[in-house]
Amino acid sequence: RVTFKRRARVEYGDAVYVSGSCEALGDGDPARAVRMRHGGGNVWSATVEGVHGDTRYRYLVQTDDHASGGRGEQGRGKGGPAAPPRWDTEYTLPLTPAGPQHG
């Protein structure tokens, strides 16, 4: 079990996700990325089972309804195409019990 934490400011309707090189993190596919929870103060977190020490991962911001072919940034509320995800820096999972934290 690994807890990911990321400080990020996002637009209304967007959310922070974590994606990585293992099945638990969607095998790098943004449509299968794990949505993180907003905990206030621009801090997002997610606890994920099945993540190993050699996992490469990165954070992304995308519309909160991306998996259902959501409205997207330009067409929000108008049925337009979904905006592409905005990827962040890629990391290799550190081998610590607390898990990764990025600010």
Q: What does this protein structure show overall?
A:
Helix content is 0%, strand content 39%. The protein is mainly β and 103 residues long. It has one domain: Immunoglobulins (Immunoglobulin-like), CATH 2.60.40. It has a four-stranded mixed β-sheet with strand order 4-5-1-8, with no helix packed on it.
Give a quick summary of the entry:
The chain is mostly beta strands and 103 residues long.
Count of the separate structural domains? 1
CATH architecture identity: Sandwich
Distance between the amino and carboxyl termini: 21 Å
What is the H-and-E element order?
EEEEEEEE
Mean pLDDT: 79
Radius of gyration: 14 Å
Number of strands: 8
CATH class: Mainly Beta
Low-confidence stretches: 67-79
Strand percentage lies at: 35-45%
Q: What is the overall silhouette?
A: globular
Could you name the CATH topology? Immunoglobulin-like
Structural class: mainly beta
Total helical segments: 0
Helix content: under 10%
Protein name: CBM20 domain-containing protein
GO molecular function, one term: starch binding
Domain CBM20: 1-83
Biased composition (Basic and acidic residues): 62-76
